[in-house]
Amino acid sequence: MITAIRGNTETARYIDAATQNQTDYFDQSVTLGKRSAYNDLYTFWEECKSPNWDGYNAFAVQEATLYKAYLFIHALPLGYPLPSVGAEPDGHLTLEWYRNPRWILSVSISPEGILYYAALFGTRDVQGSARFWVEIPQPILELIKEVKGIAV
Amino acid sequence: MIDSNHVPDVSDDEILARYAMQSSHFRRSDQTAKPELFMPHPYQELSLTRYLDATIEEVLALGKETARELNKTFYGRADIQVIKCRVGALQVVKDPTPKNPNHANIQAFPLDKLEQKAIALELAADAKFYPI
After folding, report:
1. SS3 call for A105
2. How many CB atoms lie within 10 A of CB B94?
3. Which of A55, A84, A86 lies at the smallest CB-CB distance from B72?
4. From the CA of A151, how many Å to the nearest CA of chain B?
5. ipTM over cut 0.95
6. Is A6 helix (H, G, I), strand (E, B) or coil?
7. Could you tell me the pTM of the whole model?
8. N or C: which end of chain A has fewer CB within 10 A?
9. A83 and A95 Cβ atoms separated by less than 8 Å
10. CA distances (Å), origin A84, targets A44, A73, A81, B18, B95
């Protein structure tokens, strides 16, 4: 991405300033979008941080799991849609990218940072697991793109 | 409701209801069940209620009563046909309780987390959610 135009003419200075303004605006939009996702995540965790949050004897969602989910959302590259948040009875948080009930990706996050993912594309299904460090594993990014039908 | 002295086996064409007592167990956007509602942990079975010999009002009343006893909110039910629950080794069996003769379980979920997730995605896709 071009972030600055080097030059000394009035036109170059104008383009430079305009581009910087657009970049600042874009950065702010992304930050605000993710901030909303972080808020959703935290609000949801408040509901699930005690045992039996689902009425079926679910385990509590640990703070460590919340932190891993936060890091996952933080690591989502620009242009990728944000997920909806959920939880599973074993205390994992889930992030979901959804188009319809048969076109969906669900990623479970354990407190240890293990990612368990399952996707459905019509009659085809995909599953896998991976450890989450700093970057989101490439297979999961590919599945997000496939679910949402986007080219990033 | 089913006569508790004569509870028949579960047949493939029956409909079962899974109660949602957590707001994240369904999507408000299109009123569909989420896979999390069909994850069995910490058990290897999933608790449901049969519609056999019951009215919708009775099935709903059981859901409301269950939620009330657990101090939870009753958000609705996900209905699924028994034959759609027979995924892999899963079995659907009657499991009447003193308060609910229509109670049934989906049994024999695999222990493997990924297999559980894959099944839960299938079950949620085949279920129809009815908010309260």
Report:
1. strand
2. 16
3. A55
4. 24
5. no
6. coil
7. 0.87
8. N
9. yes
10. 10, 11, 10, 22, 34
